[in-house]
Amino acid sequence: MKTLKDVISLKFKTSESEGVIFHGEGQQGDYITLELKKAKLVLNLNLGSNQLGSIYGHTSVMTGSLLDDHHWHSIVIERHGRNINLTLDRHMQHFRTNGEFDYLDLDYEITFGGMPFSGKPSSNSRKNFKGCMESINYNGNNITDLAKRKKLEPSNVGNLSFSCVEPHTVPVFFNATSYLEVPGRPSQDLFSVSFFFRTWNPNGLLLFSNFADELGNVEVDLNEGKVSVHINVSQAKKNRIDISS
């Protein structure tokens, strides 16, 4: 395909922070890759470069954050020559690609959810997408519907299911006055706790527990965006341990 205009749209949700959403490339050095990196959306696009280096077409744009929250996010990419509109959840970003070319030459497959192994160093460092996509539309073609009706040749690599499995994790939302209290485990030498958290607030108490027999306590809090652990041991010479990250 050699196109002057492209419109690509889809919705996705995932709990993974890395993964290729779609990829296409051609023999002329053209490529388009949309992927998640550190839970942000990155679009890499090249409408053509030359070997002399005087025309360098690689363009990279990043948008969004915290996109691994397992909520649906919508993407629309509209391209007319070198002019691109990238819309994520109704927030539009306009930019122009580098280089001097207007056409996107993709004479290999376009892949959704990953990229084929090409032997290039860049391809093996990229993870395939893990999550759900719906309403994939590429230049007027309903890819999701065509894939479901097995109208694409070649269509899928590996197992695709046309349903979206919900994760088993149950989140807990805390406001400024709420907290969750759980019973401790007496007569245990080991104290172990793990959890994921997400907040916009730079400060807050994440965890507190007294040790049995008045031996001290442990406190985990968020202080100016840093996680701090304080362990107070009442019967030790060095009776306070502070760790910050």
Q: Can you put this structure into words, describing what you see?
A:
This is CNTP2 protein. InterPro entries: ConA-like_dom_sf, Laminin_G, Neurexin-related_CASP. The structure is a single chain. The chain is mainly beta and 245 residues long. The chain folds into 2 domains: 148 residues, Jelly Rolls, CATH 2.60.120.200; 76 residues, no CATH class. It has 2 helices and 17 strands. Strands 9-8-7-2-12-13 form a 6-stranded antiparallel sheet. The protein has a 5-stranded antiparallel sheet with strand order 6-5-4-3-11, with no helix packed on it. A hairpin with a 6-residue loop joins strand 16 and strand 17. The chain starts with a strand and ends with a strand. The model has no long low-confidence stretch (mean pLDDT 87).
What fraction of residues sit in β-strands? 35-45%
Percent helix, as a range, is under 10%
C-alpha-based Rg, rounded: 24 Å
Oligomer: single chain
Spatial order of strands in the largest sheet: 9-8-7-2-12-13
Mean model confidence by pLDDT = 87
Give me the secondary-structure category: mainly beta
CATH architecture of the largest domain: Sandwich
Q: How would a crystallographer describe the biggest sheet?
A: 6 strands, antiparallel
Q: How many helices does DSSP assign?
A: 2
Domain Laminin G: 1-164
Pfam families: Laminin_G_2 (PF02210)
Organism: Smithornis capensis
Protein name: CNTP2 protein
